[in-house]
Amino acid sequence: MDNPSEACFRPALDGFRWDGVDRLAYKEEGSALFKAISRQVLFADPELACELRYFEIAPGGFSTLERHRHVHAVMILRGHGWGLVGTAVRPVVPHDLITVPPLTWHQFRAGLDEALGFLCMVNARRDRPELPAAPDLEALRALPAVSAFLDLPPASV
Amino acid sequence: MDNPSEACFRPALDGFRWDGVDRLAYKEEGSALFKAISRQVLFADPELACELRYFEIAPGGFSTLERHRHVHAVMILRGHGWGLVGTAVRPVVPHDLITVPPLTWHQFRAGLDEALGFLCMVNARRDRPELPAAPDLEALRALPAVSAFLDLPPASV
User: Fold this and answer.
1) Contact present, B88 and A3 (Cβ < 8 Å)
2) Of A28, A107, A146, B66, which is least surrounded by CB within 10 A?
């Protein structure tokens, strides 16, 4: 690559991978519950005040149920699944937009037959997630739609 | 909508539109040259240090040739076309990633037969674009690939 400007272009590869982007295990605090999710950091330039990441949840998998002060700005890119934000549960498909406001419980679940892939924009400087304690889970489970979302394979919601 | 959490989900509509998102004319300084491009602001939350916009260039159209201090983080979402960043010209297709470094001339052009749509993440606080003066254009045109990009319908590049 003789021209350094060429490095500004990073082609998409097959299977929602990108040239020069590592596919990372989803790292969380020890007690966090999650399943079958990977992370690729697409943009993390020190000149940018945000990062753009691509998460992919394999069929039947789910992200951590958590909340934090920082906001998530999500665009679904692949497959289908369900999202929980606050007390709302909704099916999600490609190009849907989801905002996770501050200190709002949220989780994503892939369908049983297809992966769920999504972009997530976050502030580069952000707080650590908080996991639900027993009273938080109890309050969430008091809502039938949320309880169904948390308990059941996504295809059954 | 009884549950305010429902508003956190904004479904994708047909044709790369989004529920609750206005499609805006692409506004630039008076002398800027551009053609057939629209803008939708997908995320501009005051809690987020960046914004995420979706731009769409109609077949044969192009964005402004410009540079600025702030960085663009681009993901192609639809169609195909060509990008110029610095001195590199490359074809672009969905999910390709393009970084526009500080003070780097850049432009996107749609193919003649298909629109080019892309996400662009930028810092919420950013400087205004600068347009090329005659010596800048002369320097760019000294490079055959860049000159071809600037002059020709994209399908001919």
Assistant:
1) yes
2) A28
